[in-house]
Amino acid sequence: MTAPYFCPRCGLAALNTDDDKCYGCTGCGYIYFHNTAAAVAAVIARGTEIALITRANEPGRGLLDLPGGFVEGDESLEAAVIREVAEETGFNVDHPRYLFSIPNRYDYHTIRYRTVDVFFAFDVDRIPPFTPNEEAAALHWLRVEDVDPQRVAFASVRAALRRLDELRKSA
Ligand SMILES: [Zn+2]
User: Fold this and answer.
1) How far is the CA of 27 from the centre of ligand 1 (A)?
2) What is the mean predicted confidence (pLDDT) over 135-152?
3) What's the gap in Å between 3 CA and the centre of ligand 1?
4) Which CATH code fits 37-170?
5) Residue 118 and residue 41: Cα distance in Å, rounded?
6) pLDDT of residue 100
7) CA of residue 16 to ligand 1 center, whole Å
8) Ligand 1 centroid – CA 20 distance (Å)
9) Where in the chain is the domain with CATH 3.90.79.10?
10) H or E segment to which residue 156 belongs
């Protein structure tokens, strides 16, 4: 990524940053803050197994991921994780339980986004039916210790799986 970028207000190629967070235009004085975005992920457990999807889209297409995504404007973390689970798995879950949060980086169309990924736990009694969709090409029920980290799309999800494995061992 190379500065300067085009300013969205005056159109000059004069938008610079020192820290990938605060962008200032030397032409018109416009300042843009590229703030950390909130994202959510679901750890849906059925007994000793959790649900992982195969991502249908870039980044990480074909790799494993937890159901989840970005929080929308005017949306709570709880509502976001329930919505994302429904969109990607078709499952109707409720009563999200906060687990932990992990910072993440997400490169998309040459722009680096910083996110904080917030993980929530859910339990299901039985495996609900799954239909491949625009976001999830497949669904897998795996024990945390059986997930190959090299097949996981994001560092934050790899870190989350390690933490879940530690929690499992200490339980
Ligand atoms: Zn400008």
Assistant:
1) 5
2) 96
3) 13
4) 3.90.79.10
5) 6
6) 96
7) 10
8) 17
9) 37-170
10) helix 155-170
Q: Tell me how far apart the terminal alpha carbons of the chain are, to the nearest angstrom.
A: 44
From ligand 1's centre to the CA of 24, what distance in Å?
Answer: 8
The pTM for the full model equals: 0.86
The type of residue at 163 is R
Residue whose entry in the numeric block shows the structure tokens 């980290």: 149
Task: Give per-residue pLDDT as tens, 91-132.
Answer: 999 999 999 999 988 777 777 788 999 999 999 988 888 999
Measured in Å, residue 2 CA sits from the centre of ligand 1 at 17
pLDDT tens, 4-49?
Answer: 889 999 999 999 988 888 999 999 999 999 899 999 999 999 999 9
By the 8 A CB rule, do 20 and 13 touch? Answer: no
How much distance in Å is there from the Cα of 40 to the middle of ligand 1? 34
Per-residue pLDDT at 2: 62
CB 51 within 8 A of CB 141: yes
Question: Which residues are within 8 A (CB) of 12 and not within 5 positions of it... i.e. 6 or more apart?
Answer: 6, 25, 27, 28
Q: What's residue 129's pLDDT? A: 86
